[in-house]
Specification:
Length: 216
Amino acid sequence: MTAEPTEIASRRHGAGPGASGPARDLLRIVRINEEIKRVVAVAFKINIMALNAIFLAKRAGNAALGFGVLSNELRVFSKDLRESMMALTRLIHDAVAEVSVLLQESRQDGLFRRTADEVPGNARLREVLARRDGRRAAREERIATLRRNLRLAVDEAARLVELGGVLAKSAKIEAAYGAGFASSLAQVSGEFDGIVEEIRASLDKLRRSSFFGGRA
């Protein structure tokens, strides 16, 4: 059986039950990235569905004018959502880079400290440790900033999905006026609604991520 990305990351970085903070954070970031990829795939599906819905609305004629407008708006929503996910992905890459270096340096710090314990009173070694402590503090601050920006980006994406939900529900209402195409339009609008709910669930999961202090 092929290992999942989170399992691979866990093995590579030792992010098991007794893992250090940076190792746990790295695993949490990998999980967030997997969820983002899932949302991107679903957003692409909305774009295809919206295109088909626009063609269907044209076939229905005047009876589905409102449905056609909403389908076009759902295409725009799909594009905006993908751009929002790209911004999240860029933040994820920055966070992975910073946390990976922090993890590597933490391991090196442990080695330096064990050496300092074995050779007490070594001024040169103390200077090295002090410099490394300063560098570590600066990197932790950058990670904290990335964490805040990432959370804000997830919240922004969630607000965008609220708009998508309104569009999908409005499309369900408009479908009822589709005359002979009402049944087909209702089916399409129901699929829109289901997919938007799927995206909402993914973003709710991201907001509960332990990387942001949650329990997921």
